[in-house]
Amino acid sequence: MRALRIALAVTAGACVGLGGLGAALVLLSGEVDPWPGLSLLLLAQAVTLVAAVVTGLGLRRVLRGGESRAVTRGVRAAYEWLASVLGALLVLGVTAWMLARPDAWLAVCACALVGAQAIVVLRYLRR
Predict the structure, then answer these.
(1) Are 79 and 126 in contact, with CB atoms under 8 Å apart?
(2) At how many degrees (to 10) do helices 35-63 and 105-126 cross?
(3) Average pLDDT in the 46-57 region?
(4) What is the pTM assigned to this prediction?
């Protein structure tokens, strides 16, 4: 149960952190249209939000008497799947934005790298 509580705090914190970075990007970018980079951060934020929900539901199952090992295995499998999905979506998003708006390459690449940190977090929590 302790591992699930920590994972819930980390995934929720990552979601909030990515939201803060998105807000900072909009305020500090100075670009007319910050959407190319912001969309990739929002994508990563949505995946970390799903991870937090999955973790919260797993924690609820354990608190209601579910077997903690089985629940933890399920949450870990969900993290693996979500990390893979986020990686594919970020690659797809970078490719699409590079074709649509090549002038925003710096914001797209920077935000994709920041969003990829969510993959690192999910892979780390999976251990």
Answers:
(1) yes
(2) 10
(3) 96
(4) 0.90
